[in-house]
Amino acid sequence: MVQANLLRSIVYAIAAGFLIFSQDHSLSIGATAIEFVGAAIVIAGGALMLIPAVKVPVRILATPVVTSFAVTYFFMLTGEVDSQEMTANGMFAFRMAVALFIVAPAINELWLGSNSDGVDRAELLISAGIGFIAGLIYLFIPLDPVNAVGILSAYFAISAVQRAIWIASTSRKGS
Questions:
Q1: Residue 51 belongs to some domain of the structure
Q2: Are 5 and 167 in contact, with CB atoms under 8 Å apart?
Q3: Residues 6 or more apart from 106 whose CB is under 8 A from it?
Q4: Residue among 6, 3, 34, 60 nearest 156 (CA)
Q5: SS3 of 113, please?
Q6: Are 64 and 41 in contact, with CB atoms under 8 Å apart?
Q7: Is 174 a domain residue?
Q8: Nearest to 9 by CA among 159, 171, 172
Q9: Residue 171 carries which DSSP code?
Q10: Containing domain of residue 119, as a range?
Q11: Is residue 175 included in any domain, yes or no?
Q12: 3-state secondary structure of 85
């Protein structure tokens, strides 16, 4: 669990920094950040699962890896949000893809947290809650491109910090 959270924390922090300090907050920049996060999680997550010395259960990384691959492939295949002109289809495609990218791992974390008795139970439920809140924003609140990319960067930053705190928590030291 620690390796999976460390991976996601580092990748999310890089994406958050990229989006926060970028002067351009168009959908194409948001799609680029999602493509980076998706590719990094797929490559590094796959590598983690193949290293025999690292004991990462498949159920921990399977949903983020599969979802990241699907959303990244969607963005690369359609090119719907890569143009500089804003279309309703591009905004809808971006919002739904980001909602899927955020909510699918949140559902997995909710399931893992509900079935866990260990020290990670509360952290899994917190992480799922952050994902559900961000997903609800993308699904139900009208957003323009600047707000959509800003909320994506906030999600990445909050999730990166929460996962880093999870890794460094004192409750893990005894287990």
A1: yes
A2: yes
A3: 127, 128, 129, 130, 131, 132, 135
A4: 34
A5: helix
A6: yes
A7: no
A8: 159
A9: G
A10: 2-169
A11: no
A12: coil
- The pTM of the full predicted model, rounded to 2 decimals, is 0.86
Query: How many domains does the chain divide into?
Result: 1
Q: Are 113 and 129 in contact (CB under 8 A)?
A: no
| Token pair for 100 | 């899927």
pLDDT digits (tens, 9 = 90+) for 54-105: 777 777 777 777 887 787 777 766 665 555 555 777 788 888 888 988 998 8
Residue 93 lies in a domain: yes
* Contact indicator for 56, 49 with CB cutoff of 8 Å: yes
Residue pointed to by tokens 């004192």: 170
The answer to whether the beta carbons of residues 28 and 84 sit under 8 Å apart is yes
Cβ–Cβ < 8 Å for 114, 127: no
How many C-beta atoms surround the C-beta of residue 36 within 10 A?
15
**Predicted confidence (pLDDT) per residue in 116-174, tens digit:** 877 788 888 999 999 999 999 999 999 988 999 999 999 999 999 999 998 888 555 54
